[in-house]
Amino acid sequence: MSVSTETLTGGYGAGLLDRERIIAKPGFNRWLVPPAALAIHLCIGMAYGFSVFWLPLTKSIGITAPVACPDMTLATALFTTSCDWRVSDLGWMYTLFFVLLGSSAAIWGGWLERAGPRKAGLVAACCWCGGIVLAAIGVIVHQLWLMWIGAGVIGGIGLGLGYISPVSTLIKWFPDRRGMATGMAIMGFGGGAMIGAPLANILMNTFKSDTSVGVWQTFVVIAAIYFVFMMGGAFGYRIPPAGWRPEGWQPKVTGNAMITHGHVHLRDAHKTLQFWLIWAVLTLNVSAGIGVIGMASPMLQEIFAGSLIGVPELKFADLSKEQLAAVAAIAAGFTGLLSLFNIGGRFFWAALSDKIGRKNTYYVFFLLGILLYASAPWAAGIGSKVYFVAAFCVILSMYGGGFSTIPAYLADIFGTQFVGAIHGRLLTAWATAGIIGPVVVNYIREAQIAAGIPRAQVYDFTMYILAGMLALGLIANALVRPLSDKWFMSDDEVAALQAKTQASNAGPTGSFGIGKGGFDGKALAAWAVIGLPILWGVWITLQKTFVLFS
Question: 519 and 420 in one domain?
Answer without folding.
Answer: no
